Amino acid sequence: MDQGRATAHPRFTSYFVGASAKHAFIPLARIANAADNDRHSRPCERNMLTMLTKRLLWIVLVTAVFALAACRGDVSIQTNTSGGVDVTVTNSEADINAVIADALAASGNPLLRNPSVDLQNGQIVISGEHDRRDGGGTVAGTITLTAAVVDGRLDINVTAINIEGFDASDERLEELNQNIEARLQDRARREDNNRVRLTSVTITDDSLSFTIGIEGRP
Fold it and tell me: Is there a single domain that holds both residue 48 and residue 105?
């Protein structure tokens, strides 16, 4: 991705284009320190320096989110009413299948083995093999999930379970919920920054999409 396109001013390009996140933030830290330590700076100079720092931080933030999103699926970007941008990352059914398989495998005794994911409008249906508690072999089963955004975070809920002999109090169900939420949240890559927020999640017959909102710069 050509990160230079996110630049608000050509003078600022060298702060982040072609550089790692570590290198991107070093100049900003120096600017901020200069503003704090130079006691003899005139008020107007300090104000200009503060404004410059805020704008540069916004530019680097947007660039970082674009780069992270691009590594996690198809990306579309559009401006929003706050003067910022909305980044929508679309994950294929194969992507979500890998996420679910990893979430199940994280348990030493997974609720379902050899999972297969079927995305449907508004829900995720997981099919697989369930080990019977009585040791009588395995049975086929399905778990249906929904996804929503609550207070800027992903919320996964089980809406249906079709597994013979399954005990609804099985702690593995809650563990599965938490594992899936953590992995999908990572794909959405919500940063701990009040300017970046997960705003929506949409499930269709062939994809699961996240929209990440970034507020306009100061």
Answer: no
Q: Are residues 124 and 64 in the same domain?
A: no
- Say how far apart CA 198 and CA 213 lie, in whole Å: 6
Which has the closest alpha carbon to 99: 147, 169, 164?
Answer: 147
The reply to whether 46 and 89 lie within a common domain is no
pLDDT tens across 172-195, in order?
Answer: 777 887 888 888 777 665 444 556
Residues spanned by the domain of 40: 1-71
Rg of the chain's alpha carbons, rounded to an integer?
Answer: 22
Q: Is the pTM of this model over 0.85?
A: no
The enclosing H or E element of 199 equals: strand 196-203
pLDDT in tens, 3-50: 444 433 333 333 333 333 333 333 434 434 444 454 444 555 445 444
Shared domain check, 164 and 60: no
Measured CA to CA, the distance from residue 12 to residue 26 in angstroms comes to 13
Q: At what angle do helices 21-37 and 43-70 cross, to 10 degrees?
A: 170
Indicate the residue among 30, 47, 71 that finishes a domain: 71
The whole-angstrom separation of Cα 118 and Cα 58 is 38
